[in-house]
Amino acid sequence: MSGETMKILQVYRSEPTEDVKKLVEILNRDRTADEFRLYVGEPNYDVLVQKIFANDKTVCWW
Q1: Cα-based distances in Å from 37 to 32, 48, 51
Q2: Confidence (pTM)
Q3: What tens digit of pLDDT does each residue of 4-14 get?
Q4: In the chain, where do the E strands start and end?
Q5: CA–CA separation, 52 vs 57, rounded Å?
């Protein structure tokens, strides 16, 4: 990963609180960030799996 920006995926099980939003902001600094919201509609788990493999790190928020 020399010279590449780390890619991070944020997965939310429920609507993030203000504290979670602040922590996500800190974690996303200097990274390419993506997110997936499990609590909206009917989540497409195939897309979630693709996003997990496309990113270097995944963080799940309950």
Answers
A1: 17, 9, 12
A2: 0.90
A3: 899 999 999 99
A4: 7-12, 32-37, 57-61
A5: 8
